[in-house]
Design brief:
Chain lengths: 296, 377
């Protein structure tokens, strides 16, 4: 008994060496990951930002080219146009897919999801070349259309913006499906039954109830697809055939081929700022935590 | 559609605006499971019918077949004699209050109530007028611009009612309308719902598993079990003259006494149950037949010393509980097993305690003969 009495007060008293607040322990656990992120991710980005202001001469010279150089403007215009078209097409296809999956039986839903996610496991390089073989002059699509007598001569399906959009849409559809599917699964099916019971046709139920309720998912998917599209490199490089330049490929060209670090860093910084600005705007509209899998 | 064109308010005058609904041999099977088995019944115009049964009794499936969400395997649904079995739900013009209300979360209260009018392409002025009248009817006039999420459960329930009634539906269907509410609010809304039904004079069909709700609201109650209609009738008739053991046990509480008919005479019959001879005013069966009697706990009285009754049995209290308004006693008798007795607590003749010897008595009309459920099928 006396021994117990001696131990208890010692255990209850705070140990002098570790008088940190309770939460400090948790933050210490996060520290390695934080340092890794800072060293490998944040620091290089800051360095890129710095280069864009210092190379070749200190000042805003690189950013001035945004407003004066037609080449830069053309690249930005092309990038925005291709990303916008990709986003719209991926959203339309993805919405239809998500709709079918959301209303499917649990068994069918698993197969549909597998079909949607399967492309994600195939290398983007393989997929880009697969599209080239399908879409080129002697590719399956052109040969098929020629054989069917639908066209007189091969269509230009690849090594242009059309080819890039096809490849990018193919890549982006799963990213469009998942946020929209999550939003659709949250819609109470009784609401759809209620709308029909109150006299709405299937089309009206979709337009007045389902579509508005799935809108957060649609917006989230749009933001996600657009942002990811902005940074596309391999797909446009292969399916564009070097003729259609998008931002990522142009940056690579500046830095690796022309050794104009300042210009490359400038456009990279513009991309990063554009993406952050887009996120900031839409964070006010939709719940981003839901988009990135948090929340609930 | 014709219902919407009718101007005028929701409140009907003396003339009944309801429609008569008839179900003919309605059946529904899911694989090997029979959810609804040959249910036929008729609801007269302006009546309040409740489908009552335990979960899995098929009551909700029947409602869904009336609403048009579930296609019957066999049988027909008729409205005023017209076969509407093949009509899709949106063309039936039935108002419906869903379980959990199913209010549209992205619309305000007014937009929710206006929804049935909007899909019927009613003009803006007429729409606003009707929405206002419907919200007045459920006493929610000040809540038009709120979102459903900003309302209490009871208020949401009223919005669902207003939305279901705003287009003057031929029939109002209610799926467990009060089950999501707490007990006190439920009692309040029961009264309101009943008053609303009287006021607008439409035909209501409701589904519930709550026997109290069914008894207090309905003109007619249909008791369902295992997909079959067991008994249909006014609440009092079902409670006082249950046809089967299931009905007697499901509506309120009941003691069951099994015995053999010994004599049938003008003054009453004698049923032998164990060593006790029970006097029954009615004729439960021919002499020699085995019968089952249902005896409600509140119809058994505690007999004072020397007091007589047409039926009397001695026993002792095996268990008891105080319930505020009364005591619930379980009395062990030597011949009739354990009998449950409901004793009003106000001026109770005894202070219950375990082992207390008591004498129980009931009149010859108190018990009613019921069928075993297997025999009733």
């Amino acid at each position: 008994m006396p021994r117990d009495a001696a131990v208890l007060p010692a255990a209850a008293a705070p140990r002098p060496g570790l008088a940190l607040p309770r939460e400090a322990g948790w933050w210490l656990l996060l520290l390695p990951a934080f340092l890794l992120m800072t060293a490998l991710y944040v620091a290089p980005i800051l360095q890129v930002l710095a280069i864009s202001f210092t190379e070749p001469t200190p000042g805003l010279g690189n950013y001035e080219r945004l407003f004066t150089a037609a080449g830069v403007q053309r690249v930005i215009g092309t990038t925005l146009r291709i990303c916008a078209v990709t986003t719209v097409v991926a959203l339309v296809l993805g919405y239809a897919l998500a709709y079918v999956i959301a209303l499917a039986s649990p068994r069918a839903r698993r197969w549909w999801l597998l079909g949607v996610l399967l492309p994600l496991w195939i290398s983007v390089l393989v997929r880009a070349f697969a599209w080239v073989t399908l879409l080129r002059r002697q590719g399956l699509v052109n040969e098929g259309l020629l054989a069917a007598g639908l066209i007189e001569e091969p269509l230009k399906l690849v090594w242009n913006e059309f080819g890039i959009v096809v490849g990018m849409v193919h890549y982006m559809v799963p990213y469009a499906v998942l946020p929209m599917l999550a939003a659709m699964r949250e819609i109470d099916p009784r609401l759809l039954a209620a709308a029909r019971g109150l006299g709405a046709s299937r089309l009206t139920v979709f337009g007045r109830v389902f579509l508005p309720l799935s809108m957060p998912g649609l917006v989230a998917a749009g933001v996600l697809v657009f942002i990811v599209s902005l940074g596309f490199y391999i797909t446009p490089a292969i399916l564009g055939g070097g003729k259609t330049l998008m931002a990522a490929e142009w940056i690579k060209l500046q830095i690796l081929d022309l050794v104009r670090w300042g210009m490359g860093a400038m456009l990279a910084s513009v991309l990063v700022v554009t993406i952050l600005a887009t996120l900031a705007i839409f964070a006010r509209v939709v719940d981003l935590r839901r988009l990135f899998g948090g929340g609930h | 559609m014709t219902a919407v064109a009718r101007p005028g308010a929701l409140v009907a005058g003396a003339e009944s605006a309801g429609h008569a609904l008839e179900l003919r041999g309605l059946s529904k099977r899911y694989g090997g499971f029979t959810a609804v088995d040959a249910v036929s019944l008729r609801v007269e115009r302006g009546q309040f019918l409740t489908l009552l049964g335990p979960s899995g009794s098929g009551k909700t499936t029947i409602l869904m077949m009336i609403a048009g969400f579930v296609a019957p395997g066999e049988g027909a649904v008729l409205l005023d004699g017209r076969d509407i079995t093949a009509l899709p739900p949106e063309r039936r013009d039935f108002g419906m209050v869903f379980q959990g209300y199913a209010l549209f979360p992205h619309m305000t209260v007014a937009e929710n109530v206006a929804f049935p009018l909007r899909v019927r392409r009613l003009g803006r002025a007429a729409r606003e007028e009707k929405v206002r009248a419907a919200l007045d009817l459920v006493q929610l006039s000040g809540f038009a611009d709120r979102r459903p999420s900003q309302l209490s459960g009871g208020q949401q329930q009223r919005v669902a009612l207003a939305r279901a009634l705003v287009f003057d539906p031929d029939l109002l269907l209610l799926d467990e309308p009060l089950s999501a509410l707490d007990r006190k609010l439920r009692a309040e809304l029961q009264e309101e719902l009943k008053a609303l039904h009287r006021r607008i004079g439409r035909t209501f069909v409701s589904v519930t598993h709550d026997q109290e709700e069914a008894l207090s609201l309905s003109d007619q109650v249909a008791i369902l079990n295992h997909g079959r209609l067991v008994q249909l009738g006014p609440p009092e008739a079902l409670y006082e003259r249950p046809r089967t053991r299931f009905v007697a046990g499901f509506l309120g509480h009941s003691n069951f006494l099994r015995g053999t008919v010994r004599e049938v005479a003008a003054a009453g019959s004698v049923v032998q149950a164990g060593g006790t001879r029970l006097l029954q005013r009615d004729e439960p069966g021919p002499p020699g037949a085995t019968v089952l009697l249902s005896l409600r706990p509140e119809k058994i009285a505690l007999l004072a010393e020397g007091e007589g009754a047409e039926n009397a049995v001695a026993g002792s209290i095996a268990a008891w509980a105080y319930l505020g308004a009364g005591y619930s006693l379980s009395v062990a008798t030597c011949d009739l097993g354990v009998l449950h007795v409901a004793l009003p607590a106000w001026r109770a003749p005894i202070a219950p305690r375990e082992g207390l010897p008591v004498r129980l008595g009931w009149s010859a009309e108190a018990a009613v003969p019921v069928l075993e459920d297997a025999d009733a099928a």
